Amino acid sequence: MSASTLTLDCQTQLVLEAYICYEAQKLELLDKLAPYIEPPLLPENFKNGPQIISTIETLVESFERTLSDQSESMDLAVDFGIGDNFDKSRLITCYSCLLARVLCKTNWGRIVGILDMFKKICISLIESERTEVVPDIVLHTRRFFINQCSPFLKSNHGWSGLISFQNGLSSGGKLKNSPENRYLQAFFKTFAGFVGMGLLIKVVTSKF
């Protein structure tokens, strides 16, 4: 497979599968996930794949620290009905609405927020013995990114753009006129916009 044939769709699938496998492994849940999703073999023309995954982890952890005051009030297993009387269609519907609300405007900060939500829902499913639904969440998230974020991703070097974004954060925002600095500003504006994330989840899920 040449670099030109590694489509954005393929990249997105690889990124989502590799990231959730990485997070599951950290929590010693990979054995439960393995029957449904195994760590993907990244092709040679996606050599920066591991760096993209580690960058996502760093950014998501930063995002979670920023929202740490809300974490205690966010119980995804309860809000999304992952437990007794589980309704897969309701979960997908609620998740779709949440994605649409968060990604009403696309920037790296909002994409990181979606990846955080993606991780939390997948881990909740695994811990609740609903691992068979994780591939559906991966598929739905991939389709959403492709349908809603393709222009942004294509104009910002695909998923590799996250690495430049993280470098902009690490530099202390000194790249005054660079795209990375604009992403940095958008990132913190996004954080400010996520002050009500816990409330947003409850509002969205209460409608279904």
Automatic annotation (TrEMBL):
Pfam family, one: Bcl-2
Name of this chain's protein: Bcl-2 Bcl-2 homology region 1-3 domain-containing protein
Alphabetized PROSITE patterns for the sequence: BCL2_FAMILY
Source organism (scientific name): Cichlidogyrus casuarinus
Gene3D superfamilies, sorted: Blc2-like (1.10.437.10)
Record domain Bcl-2 Bcl-2 homology region 1-3: where: 76-159
Keywords (A to Z) from UniProt: Apoptosis
GO biological process, one term: apoptotic process
Listed InterPro entries: Bcl-2-like_sf (IPR036834), Bcl-2_BH1-3 (IPR046371), Bcl2-like (IPR002475)
Sequence similarity: Belongs to the Bcl-2 family.
